[in-house]
């Protein structure tokens, strides 16, 4: 540890720093991939919801369940 003006600071070797940087960038990329997958899933959910919404409304109003008689 190295003493700075206010506090102690850890000094890493070049190899340790390189590994930390690689881990940081890898983690950043994984987070981006995860967010992208979540957005795609949300878009699919929205599309499904919009396709099902008219069906749900018609069955809630009783339109889908009634038979028309031609008397």
Automatic annotation (TrEMBL):
One of its GO terms (molecular function) is DNA-binding transcription factor activity. This is Uncharacterized protein. GO terms for biological process: animal organ morphogenesis; anterior/posterior axis specification; cell differentiation; regulation of transcription by RNA polymerase II. InterPro entries: Caudal_homeobox. One of its GO terms (cellular component) is nucleus. It comes from Strigamia maritima. It is found in: Nucleus. It comes from the Eukaryota. Its main location: nucleus.
């Amino acid at each position: 540890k190295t003493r700075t003006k206010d506090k102690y600071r850890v000094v890493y070797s070049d190899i340790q720093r390189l590994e930390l940087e690689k881990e940081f960038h890898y983690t950043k990329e994984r987070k981006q991939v995860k967010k992208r997958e979540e957005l795609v899933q949300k878009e699919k959910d929205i599309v499904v919801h919009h396709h099902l919404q008219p069906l749900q409304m018609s069955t809630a109003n009783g339109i889908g369940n009634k038979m028309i008689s031609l008397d």
